[in-house]
Actin-related protein 2/3 complex subunit 3 (Ambrosiozyma monospora), 176 residues
Amino acid sequence: MPAYHSTFLAEQDQDTREVGNMAILPLKTQFKGPAYPCMSDYDIIDEVIDLFRANSFFKNFEIKGPADRLLIYGILFISQCLNTINMRTTHSEAIKSLTNLSLDDFSIPGDIRFPLNSMYLPPGDKNDALLLRQYLAQFRQELSNRLIGRLYAESTDKPSKFWMAFAKKKFMNKSL
């Protein structure tokens, strides 16, 4: 059974920008950033959340385009979020910890600490690097916000055990 790839691979159009070889796709978001607003009901963040559990079992993933690189980054960020919280974390504690995690200093392709430098090209110049850092910050904030909605859909006392079961899984044996 092959891994699931991004459906946004086919939608390479004028709304899609690239920095290095990573796509800058439109987002439905309430956070400020360089992303264009998404006009459809389904965006890359919805896709990352939907495909996380299915793809987290795979150790190998064939990258078919720039949208797949953003999908990989999102899946690895969800893994990092799940490792940050535990089964006793309440809804309000999760909001605090995941908001802090999404705003923490993080590395981008081309940085020494970035774990996927072999698969991602670095930004071409400082302006591209700034654009990518701002986009990924916006992406991380929105992803952690929507993930909290999924984790605490049933109860605000504890996260879903069906999501927390994937906390120890390492997609592609990597972590951010």
Q: What stands out?
A: The radius of gyration is 15 Å. The first strand starts at residue 17 and ends at 19. The chain has a mean pLDDT of 92. Residues 48 and 74 are 6 Å apart (CA to CA).
